[in-house]
């Protein structure tokens, strides 16, 4: 059985999120998804529009997702030590990023493959947030 893992904030759920989850599930038998906690979101940038528990519930109910867990650390290796997944899925906007180049090296040592999926350029939570801010002015 191939266990896959991906993670994200999944705020303002959109087609890019769905594409990532659909594509990930097509390449593994069991897909585990980490949803970023509100505390970690505030560390990464500002504040999620949709509260953590609601984001967990949305992702939990996507048919491609088998298990949802809180993501309370940015350290993917710590998560791997708990879950022992075989493959990790991430958007290609992180490809060649210094942190992800390091992850590739670390994960190669333990037999985990990282697969980068094309980032959905037409829609993003950042773009949705910017649009909403403009509409509110």
UniProtKB/TrEMBL annotation:
Gene3D superfamilies linked to this entry: HUPs
GO function terms (MF aspect): nucleotidyltransferase activity
Membrane-traversing stretches: none
Limits of the Cytidyltransferase-like domain: 6-127
Alphabetic keyword roster: Nucleotidyltransferase, Transferase
SUPFAM superfamilies assigned: Nucleotidylyl transferase
InterPro entries registered for this protein in UniProt: Archaeal_FAD_synthase, Cyt_trans-like, Rossmann-like_a/b/a_fold
Superkingdom of origin organism: Bacteria
Pfam families for the chain: CTP_transf_like
The UniProt record lists the keyword Calcium: no
Coiled-coil spans in chain: none
Identification of the protein by name: Adenylyltransferase/cytidyltransferase family protein
């Amino acid at each position: 059985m191939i266990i896959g893992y991906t993670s994200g904030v999944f705020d303002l759920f959109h087609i890019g999120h769905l594409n990532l989850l659909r594509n990930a599930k097509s390449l593994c038998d069991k897909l585990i998804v980490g949803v970023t906690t509100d505390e970690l979101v505030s560390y990464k940038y500002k504040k999620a529009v949709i509260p953590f528990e609601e984001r967990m519930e949305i992702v939990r109910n996507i048919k491609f997702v088998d298990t949802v867990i809180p993501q309370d650390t940015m350290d993917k290796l710590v998560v791997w030590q708990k879950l022992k997944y075989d493959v990790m899925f991430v958007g290609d906007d992180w490809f060649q990023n210094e942190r992800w180049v390091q992850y590739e090296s670390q994960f190669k040592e333990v037999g985990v493959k990282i697969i980068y999926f094309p980032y959905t350029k037409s829609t993003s939570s950042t773009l949705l947030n910017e649009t909403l801010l403009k509409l509110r002015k």
